[in-house]
Amino acid sequence: MTAVAFxxxxxxxxxHATWNFLLKRSEHKVAFLWSMALVSFVIFLVPAAVxxxxxxxxxxxxxxxxxxxxxxxxxxxxxxxxxxLGDLSIVYPxxxxxxxxLIPLAAVLLLGESISVWGGAGIALVVLGVLFVPxxxxxxxxxxxxxxxxxxPATLMAILTGVLITCYSLWDKKALDYLAPVTVNEFSMxxxxxxxxxxxFREGGSALAAEWRDRGLTIxxxxxxxPLGYVFVLVALTTSQVSYVAPAREVGIVLGAILxxxxxxEGYGRNRIVGSLFIVAGVLTxxxxx
Length: 290
Prior knowledge:
Layout: H1 3-25, H2 29-55, H3 59-85, H4 88-111, H5 117-132, H6 140-144, H7 153-175, H8 181-195, H9 197-200, H10 206-237, H11 242-249, H12 252-263, H13 269-288
């Protein structure tokens, strides 16, 4: 990975953890996320149109963009639901860690790539961290049955979110063959905008009005930093392998866990931060693996 790509990915990690913190802090998660996506779509509409005008758009590019929209919309629904059910310091590390661990495995199964010994070690560290994060204690009973702690609805939703992260990461890497990074991002924001309204307006729009009244500036801030962070990742993907970019991006996992424990007052902080450190160690090992 080039130095520029690495810097972009690290910046993206900070921005990603920040907007997830803002989302978790909101009262109505789906309304906040949908509003954020609309802000992002509007802000990046002109830049995306410029790239489309300059580069053109083939039918294959449109097809890739539509699937991108579907995957990101589904990811947004799963992420919002995860934060409705559980803490930031659980959902964020597990979702991002699972996504990173699954990407190399998917590459082996779908792309015929191979995993080195270092790669296997990295995946093992991620899995260990994912098992550790939900622990409520270090009692030997809980340590003997770690999988039992994975059965909570928030944890299961975080795992589903991680699966969707894997899907859109691999798909968007291929979409960059036909679309500029800003255009791929615009399709992803369109996915949020199109798939989430049924849930947003389930309460007649009251939740949406409340979020704009109480957190309007926060929504606008999240609407700027969320797509900017993903554009950074997409630009890095144009020069680097997804198997390197995806793990490096997840250094934000520890930041997400710390924000949840310190600023949101979520419990079992030591376990969650230690588990997050295992996950980061694993993703960095994956990123350095030959």
